[in-house]
Amino acid sequence: MATVVWLTLQLAAVVTVVLLVVSTPIAWWLARSKAPWKEVVGALVTLPLVLPPTVLGFYLLVAFSPSSPLGQAIEGVFGQGLPFTFEGLVVASVLHSLPFAVQPIRNAFEAIGDRPLEVAATLRASPWAAFWTVAVPLARPGFLAGAILGFAHTMGEFGVVLMIGGNIPGETKVLSIAIYDYVETLEWDKAHVLAAGMLGFSFTVLLAMRLVERRLGWGGQTR
Amino acid sequence: MTTTMTTTMTTRVRARARALGLGLALLLVAAPAARAEEALIAVAANFTAAARDIGAAFEAEGGHSVTFSFGSTGKLYAQIAHGAPFHAFLAADVARPEKAEAEGLAVSGSRFTYALGRLALYSPDPDRIGTDGAVALAADDVDRLAIANPVTAPYGAAALEVLAALDLTDALRARLVQGDTIMQTHQFVVTGNVPLGFVALAQIVGHTDGSRWLVPQDLYTPLRQDAVLLRAGADSVAARAFLDFLRGPVARDIITGYGYGLDDDGRG
């Protein structure tokens, strides 16, 4: 049971880091771009929010399969395929949790408005410097919310993992799958331990986020 | 004005009554067909294709209809134990139907063996499995081996027994990929995501491609598959009729057609 919890925490941590790296440029572009088709990209990024996880799992299974060009390319580069591996779960979870990270970061960037960046420009800050010294610090609550939501969402990942995980202990058998297995095999005492832990964790995360949001929200009012 | 309104209402009520009468008449005409019942049967995943064929033959023959729910034997048992409304249970082992009988979930004395399952090693690659499957299993390039979840699926448990009998458990333990049911295990292999896997023979009798190894039956405990009438189906004419049909010649032909054995010794 400890293996399962540890593996799930590792997965959530790796996914969160990757999510922040991937989501930041997407969120920045969505917040700042004037392109008329930017909402098309916005909708694409938000898709995993409404798609059944089985749809995502099905497409990933097809795309990652060694008989598909993408699957062959991945195997050629990394020496192994993505389905039934920890790395495969990372890729799947990043896609599945993308809207949970992009949306709060985008909102935070949009809330900054043009003025602070214009002021930075008049002070001869390059756009790159303005981004790091003005936009990112001001959008900190968004980053925090995105990270927490992405982390929590990955902790509870189930449908996609069931389809491309293969239930391998120490590799792809995450918490939600373990709970499912325990319920199916009528080992309710173990299911209870994990389920209660998950319930407590989720509540703590949401409560912590609200508290942090309020504090940072007040701190961010200085502009 | 009031009179007109009353008249209109009376007309409406009359029209409605007439419609109701017509509906009742139609219902009476349709009544003989409505007496046909529906049987709700829980079926172990390995028997999916055979059950569909048998169900079609059953419905073609009699007036009853049958609906199947497919899943791993262990999962279906858990659902039955928690009040799932299934009338009968076609398991992939003896243990769960026996347990259902012992715990009062099934009608005692209704249990019988409907098929003897066969385990097969399958690969979509025609050259991967030669005459001896043990050689294919021991090959260095077997990076993944698919089996069904051994806790809930009897075919998965049988696969582990085969690995143990061949002394390959330690070599392959870290490479095992588990399907939630034998259906998912089959899917993992057919999609090429896993090079080879232990599936039910019934799932691959139709495949002409790929390579296979019919696992010798002395390497695993026989997959005796029992059916049992459940308490929820004790009064179901359709469920009893289906179980009778399952024992009949038409169903037996379909069952052997999918590569299953029959329990003729026990039949006497």
TrEMBL record, chain A:
Keywords: Cell inner membrane, Cell membrane, Membrane, Molybdenum, Transmembrane, Transmembrane helix, Transport. The chain crosses the membrane at residues 6-31, 43-64, 191-212. It comes from the Bacteria. The keyword Calcium does not apply. Its main location: membrane. Residues 5-211 form the ABC transmembrane type-1 domain. PROSITE patterns: ABC_TM1 (PS50928). It is a multi-pass membrane protein. One of its GO terms (molecular function) is molybdate ion transmembrane transporter activity. InterPro entries: MetI-like (IPR000515), MetI-like_sf (IPR035906), ModB_ABC (IPR011867). GO terms for cellular component: plasma membrane. It is found in: Cell inner membrane; Cell membrane. Part of the binding-protein-dependent transport system for molybdenum; probably responsible for the translocation of the substrate across the membrane. Belongs to the binding-protein-dependent transport system permease family. CysTW subfamily. This is Molybdenum transport system permease. It comes from Roseospira goensis. The lineage of its organism: Bacteria, Pseudomonadati, Pseudomonadota, Alphaproteobacteria, Rhodospirillales.
